[in-house]
Design goal:
190 residues; alpha+beta; Beta Polymerase, domain 2; 5-stranded mixed β-sheet; 7 helices; 7 strands; 41% helix
């Protein structure tokens, strides 16, 4: 589907990584744009396009739209942080780069601890060093001063233990994810 109202948006998060790596099943869609999104015309277009298959809360923040389309959770967000690398295109789907998403995963883990983010980061560590990922985080979020907290956050799993297990498509277990992150942090700190 091609909606002009979404022309500046790109797929991010676990769904984008799943498309690239096939490491886990993703159950939501995150579309981010570095440009502002006109929410009202977007809502009107989605209502016309999907009718009863589109639901949303009437009170939406100015920076995005949180909705369901055909029972799939969809977040469409204005995300004003700079891109580290150009947008990638796979099968006509625009995606943020892996390093952009890696930086965003660090940011997500600093704010909440859920298993899917740790699974994604463990997969990213097969392709990038933790140092590269932390450098990407620092570049993407230069005003955030959590650098000292990152190693601890990446190995603090208590909050994540009660979150749902993502469906791994490469048979990676939660214990393997935790071990991968512990080793990466240990090597980073040496």
């Amino acid at each position: 589907m091609d909606l002009k109202e979404l022309s500046t948006c790109s797929l991010v998060g676990g769904t984008a990584l799943s498309l690239k790596y096939g490491h886990r099943k993703s159950i939501d869609i995150d579309l981010f744009s570095t440009e502002e999104i006109a929410i009202e015309p977007l809502v009107n277009r989605l209502i016309n396009e999907f009718k009863l298959d589109f639901t949303y809360e009437k009170q939406q923040p100015k920076f995005g739209l949180f909705c369901y389309i055909k029972n799939v959770k969809v977040d469409i967000i204005h995300y004003p942080h700079p891109l580290l690398k150009p947008i990638e295109v796979i099968d006509n789907i625009k995606l943020f780069s892996e390093l952009d998403i890696a930086a965003m995963k660090i940011n997500a883990i600093l704010g909440r601890g859920v298993k899917k983010d740790y699974f994604d980061l463990a997969e990213l560590l097969k392709h990038f060093s933790l140092e590269d990922i932390i450098n990407a985080y620092q570049t993407k979020y230069p005003n955030q001063h959590y650098l000292i907290s990152i190693p601890n956050a990446l190995t603090y799993f208590v909050d994540a233990e009660n979150s749902p297990n993502p469906i791994s498509l490469n048979k990676t277990s939660w214990e393997e994810v935790k071990n991968t992150l512990k080793i990466a942090v240990r090597n980073y700190l040496i």
